[in-house]
Design a protein that fits this description.
Blueprint: H1 13-18, E1 20-22, E2 28-31, E3 52-54, E4 75-77, E5 98-100, E6 121-123, E7 144-146, H2 157-160, E8 167-169, H3 204-222, H4 247-250
Parallel strand pairs: 2-3, 3-4, 4-5, 5-6, 6-7, 7-8
Antiparallel strand pairs: 1-2
Length: 253
Amino acid sequence: PKGKGPQGKRITLKVAKNSVRVAFNGRRRLDLSKMGIATFPKCILELADVEELDLSRNMLKKIPNIIEKFQNLMWLDLHSNQLDELPAAIGTLHNLTYLNLCNNKLKGLPEELTLLRNLRTLNLGLNCLETIPTTLGTLRELIELGLFDNALTVIPKSVKKLPKLEKLNVKRNPLPEFAEEEEPIDTVKRIESLYLIEKKDLCGSCLQTCQGERDELHKLEDMTPGPSNKPSFPSLVTPNSSARENQEEWRMK
């Protein structure tokens, strides 16, 4: 059908106007997410006075320099596209406080990105970044910075020391601090108390309990754990966080 194919869906000015919504904060948002767009629609320049623009979850490979026409933008969402670079004109959007570039194919960042001095949230996760410029440390209003799932081997000190930074996500990068091998999980339960007493001095119920625990120990000794027997506790955020109330049932006394 017309308007579809390799170039993606064609957005008309009428469709764009019908996609303008008033966000909860009172700003006007042009929401063109999940529209199958492969080329930046030039018709939306007629709506360049919006404060928020959502072009996420499309097939965009390039953002043209005409993005500079959107001087009122405070919120720009470009996540989940196919962008491998950003235009230098991105640095002219001085009112931006939120920029989401997650899940693209970015291999580098333009120096002009550091001109966005009002940015509070910047998401660069799930890209192909091997380095980030030290000048990113000039974005002194940043509160949240996502750098997860890239190929970063170092985070500049200027970024780590941003004065207002509260959330820095660098997970799943080949950073040296995450290269250390984790200590192997101890599959043998720790004995916290050991009492030495002769068998003849035990009462009947205590003797039965001790014999039962001894039999359990013998079973553990006879077991030959294989690779598939390695215990896994994915639901535990911290040790015993989910088992605290019931740990007496499994702890060896």
